[in-house]
């Protein structure tokens, strides 16, 4: 870290650089959340539990200042459903008014 801040001349510049490094979400964190969303499946759990797990990850994205788009939320939510929900998924994709998150 010292190598990063040595080039700055004022404490304000140093503070700004440190803030930028530690306040912004890291690529690793974002990729980890993305991977977590891809692994959440509605297998062996209730639909309420499934949706709660999905929402928890959506909230983590938002807390980091990187909220997911509506399209991404819909895609992740519907892709994790099992085959028994295929009819439901099709009806959601064909609806003009989409569900809210």
How would you describe this structure to a colleague?
- With 101 residues, this protein is an all-alpha fold.
- The protein has a domain at 26-94.
- It has helices at 2-5, 11-23, 27-39, 47-63, 70-79, 86-94.
* SS content category: mainly alpha
Largest sheet properties? none
Number of strands: 0
Residue runs with pLDDT of under 50 for 5 or more positions: none
The global form is elongated
Helix content: 55-70%
Query: What is Rg?
Result: 19 Å
- Compressed to H and E, one letter per element, the order equals HHHHHH
- Percentage of residues in strands: under 5%
Total number of helices: 6
Task: Give the secondary structure arrangement, pairings included.
Elements: H1 2-5, H2 11-23, H3 27-39, H4 47-63, H5 70-79, H6 86-94
What's this model, at a glance?
This protein is mainly α.
Structural features:
6 helices; mainly alpha; single chain; elongated; Retrovirus-related Pol polyprotein from transposon RE1
């Amino acid at each position: 870290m010292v190598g990063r801040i040595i080039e700055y001349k004022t404490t304000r510049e140093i503070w700004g650089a440190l803030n930028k490094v530690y306040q912004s979400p890291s690529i690793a964190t974002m990729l980890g959340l993305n991977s977590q969303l891809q692994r959440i499946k509605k297998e062996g759990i209730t639909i309420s539990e499934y949706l709660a797990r999905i929402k928890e990850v959506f909230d983590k994205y938002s807390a980091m200042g990187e909220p997911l788009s509506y399209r991404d939320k819909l895609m992740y939510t519907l892709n994790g459903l099992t085959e028994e929900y295929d009819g439901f998924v099709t009806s959601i994709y064909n609806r003009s008014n989409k569900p809210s998150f």
